[in-house]
Every structure is written in C-alpha cells, then in structure tokens.
Amino acid sequence: MQATLPTRTASEGEVSPAAAMIRRMTGLFFVHAFLLAGAVFILLPFVWMLVTSIKPPEEVFSAELSFWPDRFYGLENYGFALTAAPVLRFALNGVIVCTGILVVQLLIAIPCAYALAKLQFPGRHLLFILVLLALCIPIQVPALPIYVALAWLGLLNTYFSMMVPFFLSVFGIFLFRQFFRSFPDDIIHAARLDGMSEFEIVWRIVTPSAWPAIAAFSVFSIVAHWNDLYWPLIVISDINLAPPPLGMMYFADAETGSNYGALTAAATVLTAPLVVTFLFARRRFIEGITMTGVK
Amino acid sequence: MAQLDLRGISKSFGDTAVLRDIDLSIGDGEFLTLVGPSGCGKSTLIRIIAGLEPQTAGSIEVDGVGIDHLRPHERRVAMVFQSYALYPHMTVFQNLALPLTMARLTMAERLPLVRLLSPRRRRVMAGIGQEVGAVAEQLQIDRLLDRRPAQLSGGQRQRVALGRAMVRHPAVFLMDEPLSNLDAKLRVHMRSELADLHARLRATFVYVTHDQVEAMTMSDRVAMMHGGRIIQLGTPAQLYDHPANLTVAQFIGSPTINLIKGRIGTDGAVEIPGGRIDLATGLPAGAEVTVGLRPEAVVPAPLAPAFQDPVRLPARLHRRENLGPEQILHFDLVGAEKAGLTCRVMGNESVVADEPVDLLFEAGACHVFNAAGERVALPATPASGRPPVRSVAPLIGGTGA
Predict the structure, then answer these.
(1) Extents of the domains making up chain A
(2) Most CB atoms closer than 10 Å: which of A11, A41, B124, B253?
(3) Which among A192, A193, A205 is the nearest to B87, CB-wise?
(4) Cβ atoms A244, A90 nearer than 8 A
C-alpha cells in the first residue's frame, strides 16, 4: 500500500515547525484585526454615549474632538437626568410592558408551536403557511383598527393597550415550531403512554428542553418592545406610563433639549437593563439561534 | 397477564398500505417477536397496539375485550423504545416514578405549588418511592436514581427504560428494537437478561426487531413480517427448519442459507448445476425451483461425514473464516459460473485451498421452493429435515450479535 501513496518531496513544501507557527499566527492576526475593526465600528456609538454622559456641556459642544473629558461631570449629568425626568419610572414601565408581553407570548406561542410541530390534524400545513404569511405583516397595518378598538373600549393610556397588539407573536410560534420539530417523537409517545395530557406534555416535557429557544426568543422580544416607540406613541399620552423611548422623547422635548450630557446619561440608564439581560442570556441565546436555524 | 388478539389490522398512509389484514393471537405470558427487514410494518403494528397510531381497519382485544377506543395509557400496555425515550430533564427516579404519579395523583396534586396543599400527596409519593426502589433494585440501577439520563451509559439508559415500563405492572410489554442502540457485547448480555425478565414477570411480551438472532434466541414464537403481512408464524425452530418461503429462508439463519437455482428433470429429480438431487417434489418436469441448503447441512468430503447416499458437488475453496469453535467455508462450485456454497463446520481442521473437493449433503436436508418462492412439501424421509446432532440455538447464537 505504502508504495502507491503519493509521497511528498522536500521541494514541494516541507514546512518547518517555526514557519508553520508564523503562518498560523499571521492568519490569526488578520482574522482578529478584521473582527476587532467590526467590533469597534459597532461599539463606538455606545462608547461615545457613555463618554458624553460624563462630559460637561462646554466640552460636548467644543470644536475639537476629545475622547476623554477634562472635567468629570458624571454626577451632575446623571443627577439631572434622574431628577428632572422620571427616568426610573420609564425603566419600570419598560420592565412591566416587556414582562407582560413576553409571558403572554410564551403562554400562547409554545402550545401553538407544539401543535404545529407535533400534532397531526387537518389544515396543519395551511395554518403554518398562515403563520409564515403573518410574519410579513408589520405592526403599522393593524395599528388603526386596534387603536380604534382600544379607544372604543376606553383602554387607551393603560399598560394593557401597550401590550395587547404583541400578545400573539407569529415569530415566536415560528421559532418554537422549528425547535420542537427536532424534539424526539418517542419521548412524546412515552409521555402519552405514561398518561400525560397534551398540555402536560407541552409544559412538563417539551418546554424544559426548550430553554435555549425560550432565552433566544426572550432576548428578541424584550429588545424589540423595550425599544419600541411607534406603538406607545399612539396609545400613551400620560408621561407616567411612558416606556423608555417615549420617556426619552418627552425628556428631550422639555428645556433639556440641548443638554446632551443629561440626555446621554438618561439613555445610558435606560439601555443598561437590556445589556444586563443579554449578558445573562448570552450563552442560551446563541444556542437557541444555532439550534433552531433561525438567524 | 393477558391474551392479546389482533383481528384484521390494516393501516395505510394515503395510498400506501403499510399493514394488510394482520390477524395474530398472542397468548398470555407469551414472548412473541415481530421480525422483518426495515419497512415491513412491524414498528407500525406495535404502535397501533400501544394506541399511538390509529389503525385504518381491524380491532385489538385484550382478554377478549376491545381496546380500540382506549387511549394509550388506559390500555394496560407499556412500551420500551429503541431510543429509550427517557425524559431528559428528569432524574432516573423521576423518570421511573412518572407513570405512577400520573396514575395515582389528581391533576391538582401534580401542579406546582398547589400540590403542597394536599396531605394525601405525601402518602402516595412515599408508596411510589418504595415501588420505584424495588424495581430499581431488580434492575440494579438503584444507585443511579439521582442521575439524569445524559449521565448514564447506553446500557444503564436501557435499564431505566425497562424499569419505567415495569413499574406500571402492565399486562403487555411492547418493545420496539430495544437493543439495537447497544454495542454488540452488551446486546448479547441484555438478550439473556430480557429472557430472564420475561420468565420472572410472566407478562405478555411483544418484541420488535430486525435482528433475526434476537428473534430466534428469546422468543416463544416468531412472526416474520414482509410487505405489511405476516408471512410465517411459528416457533424459532419451525422458521429455521421449515421456512414457508424464500424470504423467510433467507432472513432467518446466519450465515444466510445457500440457494441454488435448478429445474425438475424428466425423471422428477431436481437438476442443479453440477449434480442432481433425488427428491419427489411432485412438480412437473421442467419446472423452475430453488434449492435451499443451510450452511451446516453441507460438508466438505475431507471432513468425512457419515452421510448415506449423499449428493456430491465438486467445488473449490474460495475463502475461510475461522470463528474458533467453528469455521465458515466459502466454496465456488466447479463448472458453475458464479455459484457458490457456504459451509459451516465444527472445529478448525483446514481444508486445502485451490484443490477441488467434493461437497456432500443429503437430499433430505434440502428445502425446495417453487418459482413463486413458496416452499414445496416433500415426503418425509428418515433422515429428513436437518443433519444429525446439531442443535439450532448454539449455532445461531454463536455468530450472532
């Protein structure tokens, strides 16, 4: 056998260990340089926000570009942001709205996704196609009828009015359906033989295995609704109910309009919960994205 | 303990018929194996018995009472799956206890938090704990009760899956290829454990496998399935010694049965390439037949069997597999293109390669199949059936797994 194997001659590329090491290192260097450049590009606005939030006004408006402030003005900016506007109230509103939306979304999307992924019933494919089609409808399309209905019911200016259009998440149904499809049928069969009802199978057997998908979906959902300005702007006029972006708008409208130090301080306070959430859910989030094939 | 009767079970997916009119009675405490190549419908049949899939037609009875309308857990059946199907996020104890908690606790007592309000729950759970402990001890998994399935080896998962079936004390155990995910050595071991378990529980077992060795070694009866039908039902020995058709003959037995194409001569004997076999087949002259010969029925002349009036075929050794106590010899027939015979002989005396030898077998050891592949009944001769002093089980078990 050995005689028939192609043998390498020294001239063809006998590589010394040192040369191989150097080649590997230069490769790694370029790859990392490229990735770092991308990271800088994405992170710079955030860093600029953080830096501005601790700069005094004259430095913000000075003509020359300086990264680090000469005078630390953080306490004043953050103090002003927290006292001049109910920034913490905005954050709390954001937490209430996002939690409410997420809980109801999960309660509805998980059983729907299970039914679409694992139950045999007539019209299953049609329903799934409808789900896919619904993914293409932006919130602006049903906004008017929902607004009219809420106004008619006297529910404008409530937390409920901010949450209700998002209770049914077709994206959630789609994501969980993709995830559940890979769940072994045999385990569901075993659960049926053990006497579990379909709802118990969903919540006690299938859901515990879906934590990566739940974490991924949660990040999507929380980010989207924490940052949503469009819908709260329509249904909320009471500043005490305003979620973060709407609150920021009210804050910027007042006499603070040009106080960028205070504005970025408020923005930092309102972005922090998102960053913390993502850091906690990071690993699961990535698992969920890779396992469901949704990108 | 129960008698299980299947009457006219059919199943089709759209236009594709998977099962066609299956009638089968499985006795109380019997170990019946459904065996067949993949796609023959055996797994579908066992799922229908379990109630996991509805049949298109026919009915299932346990002890004479129809169970078609019952949901899976009401049918007094338990199932062991090929993939084990353990609940991945539960410990071994929780896996084993689940069927019992489902049966004995009310819906409210199973809910989180609400269940703490029930005084009865604690009593019931204590009882369940004892039963789970007893089963775990029987299966020697009592030390693993706190682990999760991912922390177990294949064999241990297999035992947990068995235990989850046993705790319910079902009337019928359904097993869907439970050993096929194990390595060869463990599979042989678990075969005997399963047989012991059956002897101890005296429950009715329906066992699905595509491995003929498992079918032959454990079962009271074997139902060989092909194309959605049961093509032969009988004891392992009946299937081995009297295969009803070519499909059974080829599927059962390892190494595979030797098949030689032939035709009926003018004098009624079977003419094969290189020889003729004196057999009264009752078929008309010129009819095409296939002669089947088990590998142990063919012996090379140098090993001097005491056959009376054997058929002789000249052949040349092509390959030899030494298995220790026995050897498998592959011969090419002299004068016949691409025709070969496989012999299984005890001991490891060598047969010289490249030198033509005569292969001997008795006419009575031949299975004759007509052009449609059906067995042709032969008049019994004194030496018929199988060669003397050879028992089936060790021969099959030896090379199995």
Answers:
(1) 85-292
(2) B253
(3) A205
(4) yes
The CATH code for residues B4-239 is 3.40.50.300
Q: Which residues contact B139 (CB under 8 A, 6 or more apart)?
A: B159, B160, B162, B163, B166
C-alpha A223/C-alpha A228 separation (Å) is 8
Specify the pLDDT at position A211: 85
Residue A195: list chain B partners with CB under 8 A.
Answer: 73, 99, 102-103
Residues sharing a CB contact under 8 Å with residue A135, sequence separation 6 or more, in sequence order? A170, A171, A174
User: The tokens of B372 are what?
Assistant: 């449609």
Q: Which CATH class is domain B253-399?
A: mainly beta
Of the candidates B51, B81, B98, the beta carbon closest to that of A194 is on B98
ipTM of the complex: 0.83
Contact A193 B86 (CB under 8 A): no
Could you tell me which chain B residue has the CA closest to the CA of A120? B53
Q: How many CB atoms lie within 10 A of CB A186?
A: 18
Q: Which of B78, B86, B88 sits opposite A193 (nearest CB)?
A: B78
| Residue A116: alpha-carbon gap to chain centroid | 25
Of the candidates A178, A205, A203, A177, the one whose C-alpha atom is nearest the C-alpha of residue A190 is A205
Residue written as tokens 């529980």? B201
CB A78 within 8 A of CB A49: no
Taking CB atoms and an 8 Å limit, are B81 and A190 in contact across chains?
Answer: yes
CATH level 3 topology of A85-292: MetI-like fold (1.10.3720)
Please give the radius of gyration of chain B, using alpha carbons only, rounded to the nearest integer. 26
